[in-house]
Amino acid sequence: MAAMPLPIEDYALIGDLHTAALVGNDGSIDWLCLPHFDSGACFSRLLGTGDHGYWKIAPAGGAEVVTATRRRYREGTLVLETEFDTADGTIRVTDCMPIREEHPQVVRLVEGLRGSVPIRMELSVRFDYGSSVPWVTHGGGLLTATAGPNAVALWTTAETHGEHMQTVSEVTIESGRHVSYLLTWYPSHETPPRPVDPWYAAAGTESWWRDWSESGTYRGEYAEAVQRSLITLKALTYEPTGGIVAAATTSLPEALGGNRNWDYRYCWLRDATLTLESLMRGGYHDEAMAWRDWLLRATAGDVAKLQIMYGTSGERRLDEWEVEWLPGYEGSTPVRIGNAAAGQYQLDVYGEVMSALFSASQSDGVHSRAIWDLQRNLVDFLEEGWKQPDDGIWEVRGPRRHFTHSKVMAWVAVDRAVRTMEEWPDLEGPVERWKALRSEIHSEVCEKGYNTDRKAFTQYYGSDQLDASILMIPLVGFLPATDPRVVSTIEAVERELVDGGFVLRYRTAADGAVDGLSGREGAFLACSFWLADCLHMIGRTEDARALFERLLSLRNDLGLLSEEFDPVAGRLVGNFPQAFSHVSLVNTACRLTGHEPLAPDRARTDRRHRLTNGGHVAALGSGSSARARWSLGAVARRRRETSEK
Fold first, then answer.
1. Strand, coil or helix: what is 39?
2. Are 54 and 47 in contact (CB under 8 A)?
3. What is the distance between the alpha carbons of residues 378 and 414, in angstroms, rounded to a whole number?
4. 161-163 and 150-156: which strand pairing?
5. Helix (H, G, I), strand (E, B) or coil at 289
6. Three-state secondary-structure class, residue 386
7. Phi and psi for 573 in degrees, rounded to 5?
8. Looking at the DSSP assignment, which residues form a beta bridge with residue 268?
9. What is the mean pLDDT of residues 348-353?
10. What does the alpha-carbon distance between residue 486 and residue 92 come to, in Å, rounded to a whole number?
11. For residue 401, what are the β-bridge partners?
12. pLDDT value at position 313?
């Protein structure tokens, strides 16, 4: 009951485009928030012990009787298969979450492949991050667990009984035999929803994911890694709105036992441009436009109050609090819910929003004057706002500074506004004034952000410290990669911020002088991909490929990456799986292979004719949602039609 969580890399992801679960290679689901990504968890062993909730299906006797374990996703899907060998036989456990129609469901199927294997199912539901023990009733193959507003129903053909405040099932699976389990969440004031056939639900889920994956356009070298990353991004998408959460988890530490533990179950504006580009490069235009539309809705309003992150539906209140009863992953405290960084002033997000909207316009046009009005307001704010110190891209909790990357991204915002007007002559705006502003910002960054003694752009004005975010200078077009200042900066980062072969965001200080935090952190994987990009851009393609392939080797056996890698412990650390890491993987693979996104179905030559006077940001749809809303019935009809042909 008090079993501890596994290494981060031993987990798999399953999800239904509303929430996601982490499944260990021991057959235990140790993290699941219901009904949404940022809801309270009903399985929280990931951040504590078995006393905080989990759901395990594995050979009876546990690790002592298992001689080998293999797992894989069914090709092109988020349907997980785990095989356990014992001396007496082999079983396969299949896990998935059907694409949601109304209620979230988890399907778990057990099949006998060889011999005869006794299995044990342990279900320990603990709502509200492990604090609420539910009231459990069972009978007629149905078990319900209720606490406060939450309830789950478990349907299974196996006999269950109570044991030490958990539900247990013990059955022997022989070759060719099987047993199924279906867990459904529902509001406690309602009756349990009618169950679906678990095998049918798993088949429909597999078909949905295969159809989605096959619509991608990336082919060639690194295709498997790119496809798995794009599937992971889709799994981290909140389908009703198109928002993409940074990760499925909270408070997985950036250093084991440390306090750099944050809640990443929200949508960050800083990820906007790179995410949009990766989706379009993968051929997922609808998903990219859904992300763009989420971005527009979330940022609508007073641009002076632009946040760095929002909830999946654009919520602004992300109050941070600590879960005192959870001991944290491997003792890493505190466990945080919510994120106080939402209230920080980060200048770079203005550049991220403007750059993302510019990238979207290259494919989909400028949809309305209301959208352009929002963009104008963003740049109008920056005319004075860019001069202010900010909290920086890394959400440091130290003093505000004039961070070099932040100023570069302010330049990006103005630059993209000017370029949009140049492409769309019907748009109105003070383009000459903006050109002057762009030049002013550029000159100041080159003067104050570049340290001639260090021969590098530094973390903030007047500093001699490096920061990996300055690798974005050539990536966003602030200066060409061939500029000697850029080349020497890239070489300085490679020389001084690489630890164990991968890139640190910056060198942490014992006194927390810059970030206001104690302790160290691991190498930041997205920054390592950026270094590979930069090496390629300065002509060191062999070195870029070598770094990229080292990064690929960090993926777990299922192709998943967390936020960071700890070169000391030799383990993945940080929240998992991390969207930013997978976004950067896709973009670097495309850059190294020369892959460019295919144009969408609508002709790009017509996009200048789609500007309208009507429309409003808040009325925009979620793009990919319509295509994503496939019911299991629709999947079945499609399969019948195919077979009839």
1. coil
2. no
3. 9
4. unpaired
5. helix
6. coil
7. -140, 165
8. 309
9. 94
10. 52
11. 390
12. 95
Confidence of residue 508 (pLDDT cuts 50, 70, 90): confident
**Beta strands, E only, 148-251:** 150-156, 161-163, 166-174, 178-187, 237-238, 243-244
Bridge partners of 322?
Answer: 336
pLDDT digits (tens, 9 = 90+) for 230-248: 999 999 999 999 999 999 9
- Give me the mean pLDDT over the 142-154 stretch: 97
Over 77-136, what HEC string results?
CCCEEEEEEECCEEEEEEEECCCCCCCCEEEEEEEEEEEEEEEEEEEECCHHHHCECCEE
Alpha carbons within 13 angstroms on the beta-carbon side of residue 594 total 1
- The rounded distance, in Å, linking the Cα atoms of 370 and 372 is 5
Residues in the chain: 645
Residues in contact with 77: Cβ distance below 8 Å, sequence separation at least 6, in sequence order: 96, 205, 206, 209, 210, 213, 231
Query: End-to-end distance of the chain based on CA atoms, in angstroms?
Result: 53
Asked if omega into 334 is within 30° of 0 (cis), the reply is yes
Q: How far apart are CA 189 and CA 34, in angstroms?
A: 16
DSSP state of 7: P
The rounded distance, in Å, linking the Cα atoms of 152 and 36 is 14
* Cα separations in angstroms, 264 against 38, 309, 439: 9, 10, 36
Question: In percent, how much of the chain has pLDDT > 70?
Answer: 90
**Which tokens is 259 given?**
């306090």
The pLDDT assigned to 395 comes to 77
Which tokens is 331 given? 């003792």
- For residue 28, what is the enclosing H or E element? strand 28-33
What are the respective helix, strand and coil percentages of the chain, to the nearest 5? 40, 25, 40
Of 469, 595, 474, 467, nearest to 539 (Cα)? 474
The 10 Å Cβ neighbour count of residue 116 is: 14
β partners of residue 132: 127
Structure-token pair, residue 551: 């990064």
Judged by average pLDDT, the poorest of 289-293, 570-574, 594-598 is 594-598
Please give the pLDDT value at position 600: 53
Identity (one letter) of the amino acid at 370?
Answer: A
- Tokens, residue 458: 């530094």
Domains and CATH numbers, the chain: 8-211 (2.70.98.40), 215-598 (1.50.10.10)
Ramachandran region of residue 193, left (φ > 0), alpha (ψ -120 to 50) or beta? beta
pLDDT score recorded for residue 519: 59
C-alpha 349/C-alpha 46 separation (Å) is 31
